[in-house]
Structures are given as structure tokens and as C-alpha cells.
Amino acid sequence: MNFVDKLGNFVKKYLSLLVLIGAAISYINPNIFIGVVPYFNYILGFIMFGMGMTLTKEDFVLILKKPKDVILGLLIQMVTMSIGAFIVVKILGLQGDVAVGLILLGACPGGTTSNVMSFIAKADVALSVTYTSIFTFIAPVVTPALIYLFAGTYVQVDGVG
């Protein structure tokens, strides 16, 4: 267990640097990481497990004590991401599939990446995981509604379907 603790502390301490090194390597030679593509889901699972190991029960107890903050944060996330994507579409004059794709990206919940970025920034990872979990749970209703609202002029949206 001593090795696992040391490895966890190393990754926690140097994660930002490791991410930058990995990004630089993949920018210089993108083919170097082709071999990991089949294992990507496992890698994401390992990353989420590792971040989960840094969280404590007390982190989530604090969130449960502030449900209004969680609801407000979710609303802000849904609205700002969707409106932000819509504004970018309008400013850049994007059309068709590209416009709908960007709006869809803004209307979807965060995922592993947003949680990792919260971890790297030393932000409230428990809150980020909470937002991601709740938004993912309500996404089957919220995402089609947001797409209908912001992308309805680009594509026909059957929200009920």
C-alpha cells in the first residue's frame, strides 16, 4: 500500500505538469498515443477513480448542506454554456451541422475533463462531481430542450422522441 500512497501523492503533486508534458508530446507527435485509444474508457475510469479517492464523505456533506448553491450552480452551468455556445455560433456565423454541434456541446453536461480541470485548479472537486452527476441524470430532458431552444432554427428537434 505504501507504493500506491506514494504514487497517488506524486500524481496529485505533479498532475498539472504531467498534463502539460502529455499535451506537448501529443502536439509534437500525435501518433505516439494511438496505442492507448482502445483503452481510453479504462483510462477515464482510472482517472475518475483516482479523483474519487481524493474525496471524503465530509466533502459531500458540505454540499448537502447547501442545496440552493448546487441548484443555482447547475442552472448557471446549463444557461451560460448553452448561451455561450449560441453566441459563438452567431459571432462566427457558423451554419448547419457545425452550429448544431457546437450548441449541442454547450448543452451537454460536463464530464471527466471538467472534473480533472477542477482537480488541477485545486477547486471544489466534490462540487464539480456533484454538478456532473446531477446534470448527467437530468440531461435526457434538459439537453433536448436546450437544443430545441438554441438550435431549433438549424435542425428539426423532436424533444419527446
What does this protein look like?
The chain is mainly alpha-helical. The chain has two domains: 54 residues, no CATH class; 106 residues, no CATH class. The chain is built from seven helices and no strands. It starts with a helix and ends in a 10-residue tail after the last helix. The mean pLDDT is 83.
Protein structure class: mainly alpha
Give the N-terminus to C-terminus distance in angstroms.
50 Å
What is the helix/strand order?
HHHHHHH
The low-confidence parts are none
Tally of contiguous helical segments: 7
Number of strands: 0
Largest sheet geometry: none
The percent range for strand residues is: under 5%
* Alpha-carbon Rg, integer: 19 Å
Helix fraction bin: over 70%
Supply the number of structural domains. 2
Overall pLDDT score: 83
Tell me briefly what this model is.
This protein is mostly helical. It has two domains: 1-54, no CATH class; 56-161, no CATH class. It has helices spanning 2-28, 40-54, 57-64, 67-92, 96-107, 112-120, 125-151.
Features:
161 residues; 77% helix; mainly alpha
List the helices and strands and how they pair.
Elements: H1 2-28, H2 40-54, H3 57-64, H4 67-92, H5 96-107, H6 112-120, H7 125-151
